[in-house]
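Subject: sequence -> structure tokens, single chain

Hey, anyone have a minute? Need the predicted structure for the following. Not urgent.
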Amino acid sequence: MKGEAKKIIKFLDGSDKRFIIPVYQRNYSWQKKQCEKLFNDLKNLISKPDSPHFFGSIVSSQAEGEGKEDYLIIDGQQRLTTISILLVAIVKLLAEKLVSTSDLRLEEKITKKHLVDEYQDDQRKIRLKPIKDDCNAFDSLFGSQDDFILSSNVTKNFLYFKERIIEENIDVSSLYEAISRLEIIDIFLHKEDDPQLIFESLNSTGLALEEGDKIRNFILMGLKPKLQEEYYEKYWNKIEKLTHYQVSEFFKDYLTLKLGRSVVIRDIYFTFKEYIQENNIQTEECLKDLLNFSKLYEVIVKPTISNRSYAHLLLRLQQLEFTVIHPLLLSILDLQNMGDITEDEVSESLRAIESYLLRRLIVGLPTNALNKVFATIGRDIERRVQQSSATYVEVLKYLLLSKEESSRYPKDEEFIQSLFNKNIYAMSSKNKMYLFSCLENGDSKEQAQVIEKLKDGTYSIEHVMPQTLSREWKVDLGVENEIVHEKYLHTLPNLTLTGYNSVYSNKPFKDKLTIKDGFKDSNLRLNKYISSCAQWTETEMLERMKLLTQRAKEIWSLPTSTYLPPEKITDDYTLQDDIDFTGRNLISFDLFDTTYKVDNWKSMQIHVVNELYEKFTDIINDLILDQTFDDLKSTSGQLANQYHVINDEFAIYANCSTKYKISMLRDLFSRCGLDLTELGLSLKVN
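Reply:
Had a minute. Here:
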């Protein structure tokens, strides 16, 4: 590896020199914010003629099989592409005579020295070759504006640079001279250098790479150029498009499915790398699997593209926005693709999941409990199906129904009571839209576009009994009108959909009923009972509550399961579970996908801290030196009897209650950035 400081213009200069962005690189992603900072820096350089400006590093290597002056850009493509776009903008402005310059040869100089190699044997003579879509957008800048690809960041930034130069009357000769003072560290890799290791260690001054970008580099970087191109076109480009470029989120769900545990978003790259290496998965085998699951992922995040009978259920789940369920949905759809479960079983599974999520939402149970539930349930179902003759959907329903405490599946009484006592009007907009859409449509084939019409303002949510009581309303509600008003105002029995909210206002009920387009004229199912009423009092609201209760139980029904589990041997928990383990007998624990047999809590605590020390040495050493953290102590000082020596470096506070041990481990996991579900605990059944 050889590195030297040089001007970026010097790096771009030279006959026969081309710059190729490998297909394993991410698409060009600089936006206006980054371009604005660069342009402001260049303006500052114009006012300071003698000042250089460091512009980061560019890492390159010889392009195998290409010309001797062809460079693969391993790192720094964002900066290199942006400077090239800016140079094209200057050239176009000069060609269109929208700016003038004292240097009459500037247009020709920039074009021939930095942008185009007219002596190149290839038909394409432009020096910079971005990856596929970016390349098309970049090439179009050299032609007519009618052919510009306006959706591309390449084009948007080109137009931004042109606009700023014209609006601020920037002298392009001075701007070019400022660009000439941008300094880079030019790092050239030799054949014996490992580009992947160097790539992992680099810190870029541009946009930080997302986890999906790092994974793409890991998969494709080590391949021969022709194979890179083949796999990019055959697999990766399709994966990006199928996931709608939410690649990092897709990999989080994919890894959660494969590993059966939660994966922290910032650890996706190293987790994926470890998964591939430990399982010795070959590159094309990996890409085929990723492509398969990316097709399923698109069905989940864009249900409208699917013609499957359960598409409307996926759409409703998507409207709830519980992305934590995606790994389980991927598993379910994959099983159907393989013929292991039927389309009807998929529908039944989705209904059970939807009901579970909605009931918990209405009851107000914490959402963080769902991480463990949906990260681990897939493997649990698979294991139980293999051990019995039960079907997938029956086991799924059983496992959801068997959850306890903060993970529980609310039963009918709790659900209905919460549904009608809840301030529905105060719920988030997306949840209200989902709720009223389901109550209006159910599974009817004649679907009113409730969510779309609420979003565009065609529909609104109407209080039948208004928020401010007029004299007529007080009379109609009777002597306890204030109590009734306070009790029912924002609850479901008093809320409905209408396209005429501003017309209804706080008019008396008989007017809301009979005015043009009033409740009598409404075609909405939710208004059918209201239109049959002569008045709107507590009696009518209670009657509507009964009708809505029946509808809610039909839409979000409590499932039943025929699965009979084998006799329970252990109670299984994780560090995340809010359980008092005092007096319970520990049998084993799982950490980092390995099971350890133990017979007491102290042994577990010591072993876990040992493992954390191995993986997070720097963090643990800092805690040992931190005098405010008493659970870890250096062995160099005097230790109280409560401490157990781990190694020559430190001891832990171990002669303490089980409750304290658990609290200490939760604290350590948090400080190490670990998910609490990483530590599983198997206890003897009481």
